[in-house]
Design goal:
By secondary structure, the chain is an alpha/beta fold. About 30% of the residues lie in helices and about 15% in strands. Helix 2 packs across helix 3. The longest helix has 13 residues. The chain is globular and about 40 Å long.
């Protein structure tokens, strides 16, 4: 069975030495949601871009999202426009609490539709990856989101935000976890 993996980056879009970039290179035929050129902080615009990317894919699709990309997937799933086989949601950002310096403010995120975070049960097999030392979301808050979404929680240990500043580049667990959600 042919399955396309759609990578959904967070607010910083494509980052060259990110685990998603490495995984996309390793998976033939994978697709990445294109960065926005306008309304970059708008959740509605991000969800629309995700929806457009999903609807350009023929056949089965699995989503691999990171950070705020996970929240885009949860928001899209409130009114899905097609079936999705499964999703890997790695280190969702807790935008309902202030983020570290260099990230958008709570006020800006709220004004652009990010708060409150969608908490409805996701209609597809989902694994949520949580870190014990993520500066963008405590383990307990991410575990709560996983529970709300009806997802299996995967404790990744002390991996920070699972991005280059936390030492990732390649992430050895990415491809096996994507395979798990592909299998359902």
């Amino acid at each position: 069975m042919n399955v396309t993996v759609l990578f959904v980056p967070g607010l910083r879009d494509h980052v060259e030495d990110h685990w998603q970039t490495h995984a996309a290179r390793a998976i033939p035929g994978s697709v990445t949601v294109e960065p926005l050129t306008e309304d970059r902080l708008s959740l509605a615009a991000r969800v629309s871009a995700l929806d457009a990317a999903l609807n350009e894919i023929e056949g089965d699709v699995v989503i691999a999202a990171h950070s705020a990309g996970c929240l885009m997937v949860a928001e899209w799933a409130r009114k899905p426009t097609r079936a999705v086989r499964g999703a890997l949601l790695a280190t969702p950002a807790d935008v309902e609490n202030p983020l570290p310096p260099g990230y958008p403010s709570l006020e800006d995120l709220t004004a652009h539709g990010w708060c409150p975070i969608a908490r409805e049960r996701l209609p597809f097999c989902t694994i949520v990856v949580a870190s014990n030392n993520d500066p963008l979301g405590s383990f307990d808050r991410i575990a709560d989101l996983a529970w709300c979404w009806g997802a299996r929680l995967h404790d990744a240990g002390d991996v920070g935000h699972l991005n280059p500043p936390a030492g990732f580049g390649p992430w050895d667990e990415a491809l096996p976890l994507i395979k798990q959600v592909t299998a359902g």
